[in-house]
Design goal:
Alpha/beta knot; Trp Operon Repressor, Chain A; five-stranded parallel beta sheet; 8 helices; 18% strand; binds 1~{H}-indol-6-ylboronic acid; tRNA processing; tRNA (guanine-N(1)-)-methyltransferase; methyltransferase; tRNA_m1G_MeTrfase_C_sf; EC 2.1.1.228
Length: 274
């Protein structure tokens, strides 16, 4: 797979030489190219921004400079998919990462200031390109570079051959099960007066699997009630449903719903209003 990242701070992407993604690049599984947007400026000052039409604070990135950069890195590849990190985008999830990992060519356009002139996304969509405007979460960064790092790492680790043991991709949080991961432990078995759960030493694999699933359900109910509400009831067994009932969730119209007066989040009762 090829990924081009275009930025006015290409050094921000230096971390992609490291670790798993760096190894994928060196092995040839990932052809990752980082570019300086200013290489496509036409003036002596290498200007990439200007004042916003309609007024307002800050500066907006010029569409002509971005158009030249994007045309150049897309070349004649009809499959190139334009990805624009922006706090106004839809939220980037593991589902996006999985879909992107099946593609041949992504071009990630990292904006700064108040963002990129809206005609850039419009122009490539009008030309029949795939264009995805994506946010990595509900907070605001100073530019798209950190979001690009997140997306490249999330996609890169899913490319065939990149993660040594593909089984480690199966059970993880935000996978198909729709649950957070269970807690994990290693040596020493006693540390600072804390012991590991005894069942993990039992060698009883069915019991360990059940214990892990219970902990995953508890964590998900406490931390991510939105994920519990989105669970496919058909994928739950009677033990799951009994535990979820204890945690304040019941099946209603084929979906999980919070039982009224159920314990909130951490499992402690909701505070009573004064
Ligand atoms: C200017 O918060 B973000 C983000 C913020 C940005 C730009 C891109 C992404 C461009 N500010 O994900």
């Amino acid at each position: 797979m090829r990924i081009d990242v275009v930025s006015i701070f290409p050094d921000y992407l230096a971390a992609l030489d490291l670790s798993l993604v760096g190894k994928a690049r060196r092995s040839g599984l990932l052809d990752l190219r980082v570019h300086d947007l200013r290489d496509w400026t036409a003036d002596r000052h290498r200007t990439v921004d200007d004042t916003p039409f309609g007024g307002g604070a800050g500066m907006v990135m010029r569409p002509d400079v971005w158009g030249a950069a994007i045309d150049s890195v897309l070349g004649d590849d009809p499959e190139g998919h334009l990805v624009i990190p922006t706090p106004s985008g839809e939220v980037f999830t593991q589902r996006h990462a999985e879909a992107f990992a099946t593609e041949t060519h992504l071009v990630v356009a990292c904006g700064r200031y108040e963002g990129i002139d809206a005609r850039v996304a419009e122009r490539y969509r009008a030309a029949g390109r795939r264009v995805s405007e994506l946010s990595i979460g509900d907070y605001v960064l100073n530019g798209g570079e950190v979001a690009a790092l997140v997306m490249v790492e999330a996609v890169g680790r899913l490319l065939p051959g990149v993660v040594g043991n593909p089984e480690s991709l199966v059970e993880e949080s935000h996978g198909a099960a729709g649950l957070l991961e269970y807690p994990v432990y290693t040596k020493p078995p006693a540390w600072e007066g804390l012991e590991i759960p005894e069942v993990l030493l039992s060698g009883h694999h069915a019991k360990i699997d059940r214990w892990r699933r219970d902990r995953a359900l508890e964590r998900t109910a406490a931390r991510r009630p939105d994920m519990v509400a989105a669970l496919d009831v058909a994928g739950l067994d009677k033990h799951d449903l009994r535990l979820l009932a204890e945690l304040g969730w019941h099946v209603d119209g084929g979906r999980l719903r919070r039982t009224s007066d159920a314990p909130e989040g951490t499992g402690s009762p909701a505070p009573v209003a004064e």
